[in-house]
Amino acid sequence: MKKSCCLALCLAFFTTSFLSAQSPNDTVFLRRLSQEILRHGKAYDWLRELTKGIGGRLAGSANFTRAVAWGEEKMKEAGAEKVWLQACLMPHWDRGGKDQASIVRVDGKKTTIELDVLALGNSLGTEKPVQAEVLAVADYAELEAKKDQVKGKIVYYNYGFDPGQLDPRKSYGLSGAYRRSGASRAAKYGAVGIMIRTLTESVANNPHTGGMSYVDSLPKIPAIAIGPRDADQVWEMSRNSSLVVKMHTHGKFLPDAPGHNVIGEWVGTEHPDQFITIGGHLDSWDVNEGAHDDGAGVVHTLEILRALKALGYKPKHSIRFVLFANEENGLRGGNKYAEEAKAKNEKHIFALESDEGGFAPQGFGFTAKPDQMAKIQTWLPYLSPFGTDVLEKTGGGADIGPLNRLLGTTLAGFVPDPHKYFDHHHARSDVFENVNKRELLLGAVNMAALIYLVDQYGL
Amino acid sequence: MKKSCCLALCLAFFTTSFLSAQSPNDTVFLRRLSQEILRHGKAYDWLRELTKGIGGRLAGSANFTRAVAWGEEKMKEAGAEKVWLQACLMPHWDRGGKDQASIVRVDGKKTTIELDVLALGNSLGTEKPVQAEVLAVADYAELEAKKDQVKGKIVYYNYGFDPGQLDPRKSYGLSGAYRRSGASRAAKYGAVGIMIRTLTESVANNPHTGGMSYVDSLPKIPAIAIGPRDADQVWEMSRNSSLVVKMHTHGKFLPDAPGHNVIGEWVGTEHPDQFITIGGHLDSWDVNEGAHDDGAGVVHTLEILRALKALGYKPKHSIRFVLFANEENGLRGGNKYAEEAKAKNEKHIFALESDEGGFAPQGFGFTAKPDQMAKIQTWLPYLSPFGTDVLEKTGGGADIGPLNRLLGTTLAGFVPDPHKYFDHHHARSDVFENVNKRELLLGAVNMAALIYLVDQYGL
Predict the structure, then answer these.
(1) Burial readout B377-415 (b: 16 or more C-beta within 10 A, e: otherwise)
(2) Greatest CA separation found in chain A?
(3) Comparing C-alpha atoms, which of B273, B282, B339 is closest to residue B66?
(4) Domains of chain A listed by start with CATH number
(5) Which of A396, B65, B136, B361 could, after both became Cys, cross-link B156 (CB 3.0–4.6 A)?
């Protein structure tokens, strides 16, 4: 992460004088933009409305529909010239009730040790509780080694975050494999349910939900995440004793539900047929307020529009501000947006997403060609006063990914400080109180500055 | 802040290959050191003991004495070869009771609007409440312009943090002048008390205490800080109406109290007579647990010792780990440490302090000669994987400042992310729950790495 930064800064250093001499107006404008956002930003108040006024907003839920109406209203309030809703059908998963699990037997002796759990998103529940002996494994390698012992068991995966990993996003990538695929990997050998150590390094005993999927040809067994302290307990006990766990989840899919991307458009003065997209996703999981994930991205998007409008900016390219539907368990909104752009033969030169939380900014990650990266890196002197010091060579966002795949659009993902994100990500604690106003606004400052530079100088 | 970083990275870039080729062992050792701290660090558990087990520990209080005993024990537990207490006399200010203020009259009409306030540290209370009309001013310039109206009034200073300021430490520096000197500046013109807008950008209505001092020749009037929302109210009302406020504080000085620096020493193998000092301060204000300020610095100090010991490190220079007494309202510990070092003619080559909180690391600020800065900047490739990207040309710490003034010691201050520090600094919310384990440990990683490099290569 820091290596690319180092190179970027070196390149940037040699172009600083050149750029500064060439464009003092940019420096002045970006300074005004940062002050407009930090002094008069509405992002924090809007986030309070979205999280406290509406709350969790899983695709298909009544709250998601309320969020669309709210987003449409805010897009107008922020100053979009044209606002519309882009319809798409979304999967409609419903948790169906309280997820429960407890250790009911240890070495044959009855007990009741309640565990704090959440069913994984998209997982299917059962009519009656599932009760079975636990086979605890450290990882997939141990599962494979013990595949003959799996039949009829509940498999527990203890694969957690490695605190020694310097970038927690890597820990998430590695341990996320168990959430996404752990159920079918165990069902293949006859497991009747799975439990995973929840994906976090937090010390709080919070389980985290999040998307999973089944292999269609295998039994669709229930799947839960266990809070970290309970996970410690299960792991320790299961290495010394035989545990029987009873788990009961109620997840089900209802018929696909109508949903919408909320789109605000601002027509460019020089290249009205070339589009820049900025977005976050409006949906969240059901167990929290979706404050960092991705209320922050939603209000970043609105704030950038508001602030540029407030300064009387006239974009050269057309800019679209998009609140995407259904990132968490289907990506139908992002797919729809790109498909329609392709069908209409639109030219999308750049898309930026904020979907890693509202923490203090570190920079951006890009999916860009080498010559574009080189150009972007010359902008670092403009961005660094606001906190950006990382310009990574990989990055983007789930919702804007289809734009790159279908249209070859250059992508960027906003990269905030990652160290606390996974404390709250998909957990009950992803609430408004855990977002800091100043950090949230600083994110919008850095994103707005990047958008300005792309709009002014292209890629 | 970022400009010096940019230069540092450029310099660093050109020396990376050279250094890496020369010292792969350093890279390996620093990686091991980071993993030792992140995986096995005790800093967070020690911070829990200090904050929850002892709590606020103002100089002179019984809790401070308990903290010294705790610190001595932990210093041994962390592995110091020799541990001793260095005695010093400390001022003993006592809050004396609950600080109170309310608006009791608006335009002559009786009312009761309670304000959330804290007396400023070192301020003196009054036997009876002080009740007077409020003269609200934006800043010292307005005070001077209205000096003829001050007599008999309570002066309210509305000078707050500017959210448009990119570095909140600058906001603190500017607005801190009102906390430190506002009382005597107003007393000079006959004010009977002062109130300040509390020093924070936080949205919570928390007042923040912190040190002030009087000009001895002027009346010593009471002084309080008002929570941000109450401050907004006072400011708005006072611009349209005449307000009378009643305030009652109880601060007093008791006789100077015995205190101690806790010192752990590790004798160097090559230069036992040359000292490197690492420290934080053991005292805190009375209204909170002193978790970020400066429990974090205390446990950083202990953790660096523990981790280096755990890896079997043998320092070339002698390293002192110091928990300083009385930073908040006297600096008697820091002064004592430097005075004794001078009296003994000790050679102190470097001192590092952590006193800006336990947030995610950004880097370090230095008080160093240009050739030393140049050398330090070549170390950036070693530090950047752990989060350091700023090596500023100013910095140090209050407790180690006297070492520089008396002995010319090179100083460094650990610089964590500053954006949330002033939400909690000197306020009731500076508690254990507001410190994140991973961020705290990452601070220790960066500090330990810097200490290793100074010890290996000198300055």
Answers:
(1) bbbbbbbbbbbbbbbbbebbbbbbbbbbebbebbbbbbb
(2) 78
(3) B282
(4) 2-93+255-457 (3.40.630.10), 96-250 (3.50.30.30)
(5) B136
Instruction: Read off the tokens for B45.
Output: 């558990």
Of the partner residues A2, A13, A163, the one whose CB lies closest to the CB of residue B384: A2
d(CA B357, CA B362): 12
**Distance between CA A440 and CA A444 in Å, rounded?**
7
User: What is the distance in angstroms between the Cα of B422 and the nearest Cα belonging to chain A?
Assistant: 11
What confidence score (pLDDT) does residue A24 get? 82
Whether the pLDDT of residue B19 is over 50: the answer is no
What pLDDT sits at residue B24?
82
CA dist B315 to A22, A65, B354, Å?
Answer: 51, 63, 21
- Which candidate in B9, B19, B34 is best for mutational testing of the A interface (most A CBs within 10 A)? B9
Question: How does the average pLDDT of chain B come out, rounded?
Answer: 95
Shortest CA distance to B450 belongs to which of B46, B33, B45, B169?
B33
Retrieve residue A125's tokens.
């529940």
Whether the pLDDT of residue B243 is over 60: the answer is yes
Token representation of residue A139: 């990882």
Kindly report, residue by residue over B50-80, the tens digit of the pLDDT: 999 999 999 999 999 999 999 999 999 999 9
Q: What is the DSSP string of A295-364?
A: IHHHHHHHHHHHHHHHTT---SEEEEEEEES-TTTT-HHHHHHHHHHHHTT-EEEEEEE--S-SS-EEEE
CB contact under 8 Å between B420 and A438, yes or no, is yes
pLDDT above 70: residue B14: no
State residue A271's pLDDT score: 98
The reply to whether B16 touches chain A by the CB within 8 Å rule is: yes
pLDDT at residue B18 above 90?
no
Instruction: Kindly give, in sequence order, each residue whose CB lies less than 8 Å from that of residue B359, ignoring residues fewer than 6 positions away.
Output: B292, B416, B417, B418, B419, B420, B421, B436, B439, B443
Phi, psi of A100 (to 5 degrees): -135, 145
A 378-417: CB under 8 A from B: 380-381, 384-387, 389, 417
Phi, psi of A399 (to 5 degrees): -75, -30
Query: What is the mean pLDDT of the segment spanning B25-34?
Result: 96
Residue A198 has a pLDDT of 97
Contact B206, B427 (CB under 8 A): yes
Helices within A23-81 (DSSP H only): 24-40, 43-48, 62-78
Strand, coil or helix: what is B7? helix
Distance in angstroms (rounded) separating the CA atoms of residues B282 and B303 = 15
In this predicted complex, what is the ipTM? 0.91
Please tell me the pTM assigned to this model.
0.93
